[in-house]
Amino acid sequence: MNIIRVTVVRDTTSRRFVVVGVINTMVDFAVLFALVGIGVPRYIANIISTSAAFATSFAGNKSFTFRRKGQATRRQMVRFVIVTLFSIWVIATGIIALLTPLLDTMLHNIYWSLLIAKIVATIASSVWNYVVYASYVFVETDSP
């Protein structure tokens, strides 16, 4: 019976994670393409755009996805910052840096290249985030 309950809880949590992620991703993509459109280099634009979605992600994942009510603990905030910055600045930016030159030569369109690379980077960093948030950042044993 516990296995069924854990599976249902994880399934619900993962669905809420997707909702928060869609909102964050919309902010991220909109800022990224707006900045690239006005001439900001795409690697710098990616750092700015992912930073724009950062605060929303913490609040949404803490209160909605993982249902941790009350004031955020310092431990949660520090862990979230470390995990998320690694995800967006190392994993996502690294994937974009590796894929866009290859895609540029294949597609001859920097916007399509960036879009495809950004989608791949978002999927990879989202998987990383969910696993680490659930097992390390928003664990139930945290106390204020």
Care to describe what's here?
It is built from five helices and no strands. The chain has helices spanning 2-37, 42-52, 54-65, 74-107, 110-137. The model is unreliable at 1-8 (pLDDT under 50). It is 84% helix and 0% strand. The chain starts with a helix and ends in a 7-residue tail after the last helix. The longest helix is centred in the first third of the chain and has 36 residues, at 2-37. It has one domain (2-137). Helix 1 runs antiparallel to helix 5 (110-137) and helix 4 (74-107) packs antiparallel against helix 5. With 144 residues, the chain is mainly alpha-helical.
Set down the secondary structure blueprint.
Elements: H1 2-37, H2 42-52, H3 54-65, H4 74-107, H5 110-137
The 3D shape can be described as elongated
Treating each run of at least 4 consecutive H or I residues as one helix, how many helices?
5
Unreliable stretches (pLDDT < 50, length at least 5) are 1-8
- Using DSSP, what is the number of strands? 0
What can be said about the biggest beta sheet? Answer: none
Percent of residues in helical segments?
over 70%
Distance between the ends: 31 Å
What series of H and E elements makes up the topology?
A: HHHHH
Strand-pairing-aware structural class: mainly alpha
Q: In percent, how much strand structure appears in the residues?
A: under 5%
Oligomer: single chain
The whole-angstrom Rg is 17 Å
Rounded average pLDDT: 86
Question: Could you say how many structural domains there are in total?
Answer: 1
